[in-house]
Amino acid sequence: MVVLTGEALTLDEVRRVVFEKEQVTLSDDAVIKIKVNRCAVEEMIEGKETMYGINTGFGKFSDVVIEHDDLETLQLNLIHSHACGVGDPFSETISRTMLLLRANALSQGYSGVRPALVNQLIDFVNAGIHPVIPQQGSLGASGDLAPLSHLALALLGEGEVFYQGERQQAIQVLAVEGLTPITLKEKEGLALINGTQAMTAVGVIAYLEMEKLLHQSELTAAMTLEGLRGIIDAFDEDLHYARGHQEQIDVATRIRQYVSGSSLITKQGEIRVQDAYSLRCIPQVLGASWQTVLYVKEKLQTEINAVTDNPLIFSEQNKVISGGNFHGQPIAFAMDFLKLGIAETANIAERRIERLVNPQLNDLPAFLSPNPGLESGAMIMQYSAASLVSENKTLAHPASVDSIPSSANQEDHVSMGTIAARHALQMLQNIRRVIAIELICAMQAVEYRGTDHMATKTRAFYEKARRIVPSITKDRVYSTDIEKLTEWLKADNESDVTVSNHKGGVLHE
């Protein structure tokens, strides 16, 4: 059971709730904090104090004072008018993550909502009710208004949800689960949609996927080293300590352990003096990609426990403060940075694919074909990989450098953080296919060399992957192989990717 306090949610707990369906509850302390600040909101309303979004309009309408009898209607109108998302819906995984993160953000109490609203979000998570949320339409400030409005609709019994594998009307699913549609009170509509939970949810999923993909890329690169009789000296511990980047040191350590015992790996001068950069510089490039991942992890860990609403209620200080915590710039930058790591991990993998299939760069059968000339083998797989990395280069353009004013220039600078996060996730689908193609080619190369000469770890990885995609004995429709292996890489949780460093510690997991 994951207990929400608003302050201590971890990325591992998010993973368990989202992927392992662990149940969620609200802490007793959080309930107290929520109630205290809700009382403060109600007292200020009774005192007829002017508070943004509580008894005023929104955005450019912030100077319009709303009559007391219309305050609940104001919140409902906000959700209806802001539910302008378009395009394909987010996956259930991301929708589920958004529910969890929004519940956690409201758990600190500063948003001035009732415990019932937070519990409705938690009930959705525990029952597996996932709002249908269009992907496009957010500027990333004032928070993810459009996506979160669609999330809010479902809480009201409106819109659609994914439930038990089907897309259904929210009101019908609520009835099945014995849940009552929430009626929004003062401030609660604004509290639901003023936040960065769409971009952060996508960012969390992107981070988790990239972490796994980097490990898989390292394992695949190790197999490619065997297939190309790569030189182990370039992974020497002293060489990498001389530069000092810990992530680079860690990658080199893992590669050495992955190929330990392999008789396919060569020494400097045994066959050639130096390998090409795509082999020799694996630790330097993938180590730098790990740096982007670790930076993103740090920012996400902060953001999943952040209060990103506006205004915030500080009852102990008797303050209601309008600010800009909804601005997504930290996550926008983080996602754009992650995109660079994704792009370069794919770029160097594609170059290794080229070295595996190009007969001018190796001593393997041309294009790994079982019958070169009559059969093309892996020739066009490299084309597909090249296309994917080229597409990634366009997606890697930073979304965060753009800003378009909105709400009659009241909201005159926005983050585009959700676009950055969505592009990162798109790029991850591309890189997974590139790694799948490299793995297909690497497996073919080590078969040519003799799999009995492989290292224990790479051999185990090879045998698992071979159960998904058979050896190339004649030309076939390779698209099917690529997609099957891509799906396996996405689902694989069995790869032995935890190794020890020379001091006995555990490297990145």
TrEMBL record:
- What post-translational modification information does the record give? Contains an active site 4-methylidene-imidazol-5-one (MIO), which is formed autocatalytically by cyclization and dehydration of residues Ala-Ser-Gly.
CDD domains this protein is in? Answer: PAL-HAL
InterPro entries named in the record? Aromatic_Lyase, Fumarase/histidase_N, HutH, L-Aspartase-like, Phe/His_NH3-lyase_AS
2,3-didehydroalanine (Ser): modified positions? S142
The pathway to which it is assigned is:
Amino-acid degradation; L-histidine degradation into L-glutamate; N-formimidoyl-L-glutamate from L-histidine: step 1/3
Q: Which domain of life is it from?
A: Bacteria
- Keyword flag Cytoplasm: yes
Question: Principal localization?
Answer: cytoplasm
Under the heading PROSITE patterns, the entry gives: PAL_HISTIDASE
Which Pfam families would you find in this protein's record?
Lyase_aromatic
Give GO MF terms, alphabetically.
histidine ammonia-lyase activity
Q: Which UniProt keywords apply?
A: Cytoplasm, Histidine metabolism, Lyase
Q: Which family is it part of?
A: Belongs to the PAL/histidase family.
The protein's name: Histidine ammonia-lyase
State the species of origin.
Answer: Virgibacillus byunsanensis
Q: What is the gene called?
A: hutH
